[in-house]
Design a protein that fits this description.
- By secondary structure, the protein is of the alpha+beta class.
- Strands 1-7-6-4-5 form a five-stranded mixed beta sheet, with helices on both faces. Strands 8-15-14-13 form a four-stranded mixed beta sheet, with helices on both faces.
- Helix 4 links the parallel strand 4 and strand 5.
- Helix 3 crosses helix 4 and helix 7 runs parallel beside helix 8.
- The chain is globular, with a radius of gyration of 19 Å.
- The protein starts with a strand and ends with a strand.
- 50% of the residues are buried.
- The structure holds acetyl coenzyme *A.
- Acetyl coenzyme *A (ACO) binds next to helix 2, helix 6, helix 7 and strand 14.
């Protein structure tokens, strides 16, 4: 039995903000942003393009790509840290929009590792026989959580959504194995705080906060932990690093990916990137990149891929997939 990705989809908002445009908002310039991050532009939501809208469009594209209907879905999992509403969950809203009447739906927050953790969850449900076909989505409107007066962080993030349909079949390959981890003791390295407590006993003045980050600590964490967990998954599955066609990493920063490639002694051209066009879209970055690879015909049956997410929490993980 294989548990396989049978279709992918994505949605990016219409409006594009390049570095030059950001330099009219904060004290920055195109050269600084490109040299430190590799980002040239990012898509930003406007009008109705919230987290649910983008997730719904990515979902419809993934269902079409998979050649199945919404009624065939047993489950929808949405990874997000930027939902439009606390209740209902984004996944339930998507269910309503696409008519997935049989699906059980819930959201999952593991920051930039969210899509990978959601794939793992889908895998576990299918493996246990509790679901057969699962839609996994990463969707983020990070522009609503960014402090647009903080030049150290607002240049990094973008909005978007990506989705994948996971299904059990009788073949071989698919999602093979994963390693995951978290370290809550380092949670302060990257935060976005919610509203303070307001009830008859307590009246916090704190409004919802913005994304705050110790950029260099995040950088150190990523370039240490990602090569480590990729080596762990290769060892666990007895896979040679040379047999991996693509390393599909969370798209945070070109310098992070360059250093990870160097530490693994793998050519950078096996690390596909689109962060120059989209910035960091958190849980959406891996499925958006996967969808681009898929639609550009770069993935063939039997290709071995490593997916790796890393981010706030802190959280991290790597997964081996045979396409
Ligand atoms: N434009 C111009 N100058 C800037 C900007 C900007 N946008 N932002 C900061 N600076 C200035 C700083 O004020 C500082 O000036 P100073 O020397 O006069 O004090 C100088 O540039 C250097 O600032 P640093 O913060 O030390 O720059 P650094 O080289 O660390 O780069 C960056 C910052 C790009 C955030 C880097 O630390 C990084 O990539 N970290 C990883 C963070 C990340 O990817 N986070 C994403 C969320 S988490 C995740 O997805 C895993």
């Amino acid at each position: 039995m294989a548990i396989r990705i049978i279709g992918t989809g994505s949605y990016l908002p219409q409006k594009v903000a390049d570095n030059q445009f950001l330099s009219t908002i904060v004290d920055t310039d195109d050269e600084w942003i490109r040299q430190r991050t590799g980002i040239k532009e990012r898509h930003l939501s406007s009008g109705k393009e919230g987290t649910t809208y983008m997730a719904t469009h990515a979902a419809e594209a993934a269902l079409e790509n998979a050649g199945i209907t919404a009624e065939e879905l047993d489950m929808i999992i949405v990874a997000t840290v930027s939902a439009d509403t606390y209740v209902p969950s984004t996944s339930c809203s998507v269910q309503g929009a696409i008519g997935a009447i049989r699906a059980t739906c819930f959201d999952l927050n593991a920051a930039c590792s969210g899509f990978m953790f959601s794939l793992n969850t889908a895998y576990a449900y299918i493996e246990m026989g509790m679901a057969k076909t699962v839609l996994v989505i990463g969707s983020e409107t990070l522009s609503r959580e960014v402090d647009w007066s903080d030049r150290g962080s607002c240049i990094l993030f973008g909005d978007g959504a990506g989705a994948a349909v996971i299904q059990q079949d009788d073949g071989e390959g698919g999602l093979i194995a994963s390693v995951t981890g978290s370290d809550g003791s380092q949670g302060d390295v990257l935060t976005c705080k919610g509203r303070g407590i307001q009830n008859p006993f307590h009246n916090s003045r704190r409004r919802k906060d913005y994304i705050r980050m110790d950029g260099q600590a995040v950088f150190r964490f990523a370039v240490t932990m990602v090569p480590r967990c990729i080596k762990q998954i290769l060892k666990k599955t007895e896979t040679d690093v040379e047999d991996i066609k693509f390393f599909v990493l969370h798209q945070a920063n070109v310098r992070i990916i360059e250093l990870i490639a160097k530490r693994l002694r793998v050519d950078l051209d096996r690390f596909p990137m689109n962060l120059n066009r989209y910035g960091n879209t958190s849980s959406a970055s891996i499925p958006i990149l996967l969808d681009e690879l898929n639609r550009n015909g770069l993935l063939e049956r039997g290709d071995k891929l490593i997916l790796s997410g890393f981010g706030g929490g802190l959280t991290w993980g790597a997964m081996l997939i045979i396409w």
